[in-house]
Amino acid sequence: MQRVYAFNEGTAQMKDILGGKGANLAEMTRLGLPVPKGFTISAKACLEFLNHGEVLLDELKAEIDQYIQQLEQDTGKKFDGAENLLLVSVRSGAKISMPGMMDTILNVGLNDHTVETLAQETQDYRFAYDCYRRLLQMYGNVVFGMDGSKFERILDQHKKAAHARYDSDLTADQLKAVIADYKELYLKEIDQPFPQNVTDQIYEAVKAVFRSWNNDRAKYYRKLNEIPNDMGTAVNIQEMVFGNRGESSGTGVLFTRNPATGEHKLFGEYLVNAQGEDVVAGIRTPSSIQKLAEDFPEIYTLLNELVYKLEHHYKDMQDIEFTIEEGQLYILQTRNGKRTAKSAFKVAVDLVKEGVITKEEALMRIEPSAVNQWLHPTFDSESLAQAELISNHGLPASPGSGTGQVVFTAKVAKEWAEAGKKVILVRQETSPEDIEGMNLAQAIVTSHGGMTSHAAVVARGMGKSCVVGVDDLEISEENKTVIYPGGELHEGDLISVDGSSGKLYRGEIKQSFTSTDESYATIMEWAEEVSELKVRMNAETLPDIQTGLAFGAVGIGLTRTEHMFFKAERLKEFRSFILSQKEEERQAALDRIQAYQEEDFEKIFRALDGFPANIRLLDPPLHEFLPAKDQDIELVAGQQGISAQELKSRIHNLKEVNPMLGHRGCRLGMTFPNLYLMQARAIMTSAIKLVQEGLEVSPEIMIPLVSTQKELAILKEKIVAELDQMIQEAGVELAYTVGTMIEIPRACFIADDLAQIGQFFSFGTNDLTQMTYGFSRDDAGKFINQYIENGVLETDPFQTIDLAGVGELVRIAVEKGRQANPNLKIGVCGELGGDPKSIMFFNQVGLDYVSCSPFRVPIAKIAAAQATIRKQEK
Ligand code: PEP
Ligand code: MG
């Protein structure tokens, strides 16, 4: 196995072996750019090292020696030489860039002798000793793990004594004294001197960089960015060029376009007479890159040419490091630049306009989750870094950030919010009664529940920041306290909630917001143009529908009608339907509810203006509509004109051991057909009204939780008989469809039977996942995090589709359904409908649309476009 590659042996495509930095150095070498010569030790050699007791194999050492010799020949310089001294940098570089997470050592090859060679050759003693003390410092820190601040302290003492402001103000003799103290520090801290053998320096530096793959910050960064742990890092060994050789030298970093705004103008900084990390370390204030035009006009022109060449070659905005050594320009690194969402959209659109990339390439460049930055306020990153963490155990249920005072009930949330306070609703879990308080809160936190729990689903619908399942919070709604591992919170305390990371912080954190612009609109337009999959929204309220439409949803994929039953006056009527023993009373209650429902559906149809509206008939178990606490029971009993005792006994009768598997979904329609018929009539009454006004409507009536063909057949027949008669009596032309949700594994296996009856399918992947795994969607929060940490599960199946199980069921159902009914329209309305990876799969199996919360519509549209492009590429 070849473990080492010279820069002129590689290409940009070899990132797996050479890492990102190494592959780009090879590519730039191939393109003839001024890159200092060098070679790359492969990431495979890193894995070999880490997996075999962290010893450097003799084969690898031999290869390194051979490439060092080659480098000596190519540069005409000598490592450890008495003249023409070769020094090298040893830098990490993984396949996926992890800026600043792993280690780098510069000036390797200096020792007590070669430092004199360097001094004589450059006729600059100050420079030579400065290089040596930097090596001692970096090497001690990276190879031996010595505390960097101890070196800094020594340097500061010497600067103070010499009245020097900057490092560069120290004289050669003063630097010599610093070096002597650094050497003392080695003896004191690690009981051995700084190694004088330069080959050992290389070997040890390589080992240290390999090991830095597994340092804590690198591991954390990988976890945060979902970078696999089994890639390892390559190591680049490169001839040193010096930006600190006096006033005709310097070093800098630049972006080919502005990484914050996307503006097409060089963006960056440089420092005269400085080395490597000085620019980023903030020791001196660097000058803006535009000043280079005044200081070094020829270099500025050349740099512009090279930068243009690199951007066109890589077809993307580049982040470039350069060094000027005595008037000679070198490029040390190029990579695709990290950028904000605003910049990402503008750069992508501009590159298309400039003819550099196609629309499809531009769409593939957009990170779907970056869309969140546009739609939700996020915490200012500097303030965030200083904030005190309360917990990082939560699930990031709904993105965005919120800051406010802790309250424990929806009632208090409402009172305080109406009094002008910003509140965070903190509860063990939420229930439908909490809706109003949730809506008025800045963010919602629960200690129980998973990604499809009530709080998560509702908050996403509202576009409100939400963190659920924070299992290390002990919330006492009674005592109004939260106990967490590091302390305690009381009602009124300020906290901050990051719904994008799932973390909670103490105190208030500054927020920032980006508003959408022209580039955003252009990208969204292109996304719609290329996508096979349509994107609908899950919504029932007018504000939600308007939000979804503004984001480009082309209809409703799920209206959860139960959400309409929770307003006080309707709840009262619905409770009287549930509780009354007499048929006429029940029917009277239903009639009153029908009037409310007609208003609801009329609003929906008007807002949609002809786009399809998928309306689901009532789904949850009935006891969810009844009070739970004693004081509420008293109140409701009074309203309903029965005794508290009687109400309690009714509630007791309705209680179920497993309500999610109990009397819910179409089973309600089977036992209370009038309930479903009332809803169907309400839909049709408002639809007919609109058609009579000359407007377009497209109702889709959806029957939930079907597990047998008969359920669907019986309910559909009743509904169709009723509605066809209504249409006939009204004398209008009105097309509507009746279909079913696919939420039960059995429904997938009998999809052909169901497709003979239903005109559409919509996958309810929340319930389908729950029933496929047997994981309760409301309780899985208790163990799912641990499962993911231990590697039992790769991801949360409620967030990203489980291809092997749930995905397979979806595939079977689509195949069987379409075989039996080629015109079957198929969509998905579970939470996975807004998840980019799941959308990729839904596109592959040929669904017609995905449906998600209004605030996820933009992400879904980007993901749908990318899914189509990927599929076509294949
Ligand atoms: C589902 O089960 O995926 C679904 C959309 O329905 P609900 O979340 O309302 O159960
Ligand atoms: Mg469901």
Automatic annotation (TrEMBL):
Ranges in a coiled coil? 50-77
Q: Which InterPro entries match?
A: ATP_grasp_subdomain_1, PEP-util_enz_mobile_dom, PEP_util_AS, PEP_util_C, PEP_util_CS, Phosphohistidine_dom_sf, PPDK_AMP/ATP-bd, Pyruvate_phosphate_dikinase
- What are the required cofactors? Mg(2+)
Question: EC no.?
Answer: 2.7.9.1
- What keywords were assigned to this record? ATP-binding, Coiled coil, Kinase, Magnesium, Metal-binding, Nucleotide-binding, Pyruvate, Transferase
Q: Where is the PEP-utilising enzyme mobile domain?
A: 421-502
Give the NCBIfam families listed for this entry.
PRK05878.1, pyru_phos_dikin
Q: What is this protein called?
A: Pyruvate, phosphate dikinase
